[in-house]
Design a protein that fits this description.
alpha+beta, Immunoglobulin-like, 39% strand, transmembrane helix, OmcB-like_DUF11, Conserved repeat domain-containing protein, transmembrane
Length: 197
């Protein structure tokens, strides 16, 4: 399959599993260069409730000898998560296609990041899968990374009980100062009678 210069054809015409099977493409001009790209994919929370947000951190670093050409990460969000926003430290991300187009990644670029903020709209196990591709020879065969979170239903019954407790009114039970004074007076009187004998 040919990849256009923009690189978008790859994700639009292939399923994620097909991208994984074609984890790198060696261009003729780059056949002697090699990169060692490391992909990471993490979430800032493991357990959330519906309506809460989670931030996914996808990162790539080149630990090889040469610049990696035309680096892309495919990260299509799973069903049950709604896209809110994103930031990148290098390249551009299209939330509609799930393509993070990093471009050329030199060793000197260090680790580059994509942060995607999402909102949970369904319950269940959510697995975010990221796939890495490059036009250069990637000496690292691990070009797939996934992270899992659990989304639980918010427990409205507990919230209703908390509201009931918080809104409950205190019923006056008398004057506590008078009860305290009576108790002290009773103890003092009993002690005084023993002392007198």
């Amino acid at each position: 399959m040919e990849i256009d210069d923009g690189g978008d054809e790859l994700a639009l015409s292939q399923e994620p599993d097909e991208i994984l099977s074609e984890s790198f493409v060696v261009a003729e001009s780059d056949s002697n260069s090699s990169a060692y790209l490391v992909l990471d994919n993490d979430a800032d929370k493991e357990n959330i409730e519906i309506g809460e947000e989670v931030v996914w951190e996808v990162s790539v670093i080149n630990l090889g000898n040469d610049t990696a050409k035309n680096v892309k990460v495919y990260d299509q969000l799973p069903d049950g998560l709604e896209y809110v926003s994103h930031t990148t430290t290098k390249g551009t991300f299209n939330p509609d296609t799930g393509i993070w187009l990093i471009g050329d990644l030199a060793v000197s670029d260090g680790e580059v990041f994509l942060h995607i903020t999402t909102k949970a709209v369904a319950v269940g196990e959510m697995i975010n899968k990221a796939y890495l591709t490059t036009d250069s020879l990637n000496l690292n065969n691990e070009t797939y990374e996934e992270e899992e979170i659990d989304v639980e239903d918010s427990d409205d019954d507990d919230k209703d009980v908390s509201k009931s407790i918080a809104s409950a009114k205190m019923v006056p039970a008398g004057n506590p100062l008078a009860l305290i004074l009576l108790s002290v007076f009773g103890v003092f009187t009993a002690s005084f009678k023993k002392f007198k004998r």
